Amino acid sequence: MRRLAQLLAAGEITSTELVRRCLERIKETEPELNAFITVDEEGALVQAAQSDERRARSQALSPWDGIPLAVKDNISTKGLRTTCASRFLRSYRPVYDATVVERVKRAGLIIIGKTNLDEFAMGSSTEYSAFGVTKNPHDPARVAGGSSGGSAAAVAAGQVPWSLGTDTGGSIRQPAAFCGVVGLKPTYGRVSRYGVVALAPSLDQVGPLAATVEDAAILFSLIAGADPRDATSTEARPFALPAWDPQVVQGLKVGVPEEFFSSGLHGEVEAAARSVLRSLEEQGAVLQPISLASNEYAIDTYLTLVTAEASSCLARFDGVRYGERVPAGDVNTMFAKSRGAGFGPEVKRRIMLGTYVLSASHYEAYYEQAQRVRTLIRQEVARAFAEVDVIITPTTPTTAFRIGEKRNPLEMYLSDLYTATANLSGVCALSLPCGSDARGLPIGLQIMGNHFQEELIFQVAHVVEANVERVAGFEL
Amino acid sequence: MNYDIVIGLEIHVALLTESKFLCSCSTAFGAAPNTQCCPVCLGLPGSLPMVNEKAVEYAVKAGLALNCQVHHFSRFDRKNYFYPDLPKAYQITQDTYPLCTDGYLEYYIDDQLHRTAITRLHLEEEAGKLIHSGGSIVDSEYSLVDYNRAGIPLIEIVTAPDITSPRQARLFLEQLRLLMLYIGVSDVKMEEGSLRCDANISLKPQGSAVLGTKVEVKNLNSFRALERALEYEAERQRIVLEQGGKIRQESRTWDERSGRTASMRSKADAPDYRYFPEPDLPPLRLDPAWVERIKASLPERPLERLRRLEKEFGLSRYEATFLVNYPDFGQLFLELAVAGGDNRALINLLMGEYAGLAREFGHLEPERLTELLAIVDEGLITHSQSKAVLEELFRSPLSPRQIVKEKGWEVLRDVEQLREAIQGVLAGHPDLLDRYRAGEERLFGFFVGQVMRAVQGKADPKVVNQLLKEELNRLV
Ligand SMILES: [Zn+2]
User: CB contact, 8 Å: A209 with chain B?
Assistant: First the structure.
């Protein structure tokens, strides 16, 4: 990204040229990939022309002014349709920009389009999209992961230099791992959720996806910071791009939770992660076995809370104010039928589960119990971070699976096994590529840091990245 | 068998903040439909609530005025239910940890002090307003919705089942209304919906400690409706019980025209609101010093004023109650009255003809009222003339003295002129004079009236009495 910024600053390339390059690349690859739901060719070119004018007047909004970006389609963009990959919002055009969109626009970034996801971000493969599955650029027979599958695939295929995703249980990190890019789930509260169509408000965070650690850090620096419109955004301290320091691993205490290296973990994935750990140790880091035993309950806890919150957040979609009305004899049947027609199967499943766990007779056994376990997980993670600086694990148990392979929803839920803990405890975590398996599929490494320790995990990731071959990204 | 009536009330008061509870839209009443809305109060996907501090302040004020315990920690919850007037399909309210609990309200009924316990008081948001083309949403060709009202802050006040008669319920609500008016947190207009009340009522055998099955009565749009509906409902339940029947736990709606309650839904059909903690808002933590400051700044409450008017201004309970119930009159009285002094003339004036005129035309300036009382006291005009001056004051900008002068209404002090008038009246009614002579003494009053009429009421009736007596004695 620094190179693009330099070229733009030197006038060796224009924003319009950059945008055209992206649009071409999208035209080439999109028929196979399906990373985008909406490509705003016209709007992007208009914005690019404005950026070029700013550059010509030496009034660039930031060093990144004019660089294109893709935005996950559950983040509101004023006037640009925001579908959440649902039939329900097929023609919904927000009247306002999400805070993160406002912020990237303020830095001069150009929104090329809106990327594909599992409907309302419910899923781990982008197969549950009303706009078709997004394919993995490394193997089109395989999924890109999800729910930010479009955002990850678009970066991996070089359609855009970077993108925004959202992460509720792993939705940035898991597709980043599958597609071989870097993705950050920030500390809960560090990035505004205003304008992000909620899946589970107590877990959702917006984060960057990019080909390199530095690019992810740059994009993060543009969107981080408290927002007076989001009462859960807590950190006013801005994030500044750090000076990269390879010495950071000297004496760094790296927690290695054995539970994340046990059954279900693919051998090649384990080997890749262990190899990084060894390399860090050689560079001066101290590996420390830790226990995150309650992670065993993370997925159940996560699912209970996500479905509960989602069932409430999605109740407003009624076929009248949103979506299409299915005519019926009476008003209640009309609402019911419209909802039945508008939502896909996974969304319906989660609404039903969520309604069940919140109902008066089951609330205590499920929702309240899940809150208690969440507290335990949070405490356990806090105890771990009292002893170590970062926790390193594989991002996912396996590399990208085949499209249609996981027919059982429960199996699909397990792809968040290593990632949901960061959401439940609110800490930050990123995924970066750490090699490939025998099929050439990227393997992701997860680095978790304590609350507001993004700088540290970026630093560590930057060290790791130096020894890993880059497998994807934007080329001029 | 005799039965005890047990009533508890659930009251909603719309707070008079300038902006809404969770966004900054205006709360002004009567604007064109859907002109005071934003993404937040429309519940657009991705929008997030922010708590209006003023609403919290007003709710705390109300809680303190109701002698409640104000909790420094309270929490918001989601109450999930689907209805087209509720933009998000859930209401942000406080369920488990309300802002205030354990208060009471004291009020007089027939000179006896009553106390009703307040169980809880919490903050929540108002829904929008539906306008149906037919009678209700199920039998209408179409329904319109106005979201201007959506998101106005409400407090819900729940009483203990302490109320023992429909009349008491009304008097309690009237006192509560007055209290809210005194502390300035609401305009409490039942006709505009800024004060609403639902009632729970049950019957139990006299003296029994066991509560009977309660019925909820809704649609009580006036104080009178509250009393009438409860009277009807108590009688209905009594008849059911006397005939050996059972009361069904249900919600019933009051029909003003038929004067009956009708079943709306039984307990089995009661909605499950699936409450859970609101993930978009952190808990509400109040600074104890801030609460103390609000407490210290609370204005005089109705009962305090009643006691002060009785003690310091020598008013009767009846007079003091009048002034308390009509705070504008109370204010005027307190401006003009002298503590410890004789305020008879003032209170008589305010509660007499002035009251009717002021309600029709608005209040007079306090200085002009003071002057009116002064010129009666000085004897410049008579008490009966003061009424004419008073009426004139509502029509003219002049001072009482100027009016008296202009109209030539000074008291007639010329004894000879009066004697002439008396003689004229007696000479004009020789037959009546004869009857008086014959012992029909009640004609004295008639002669006084005729004399007053002859001098256009300008004489002091005491002087006229005296002179008439002398003249009649002379003639008899
Ligand atoms: Zn609003």
Answer: no
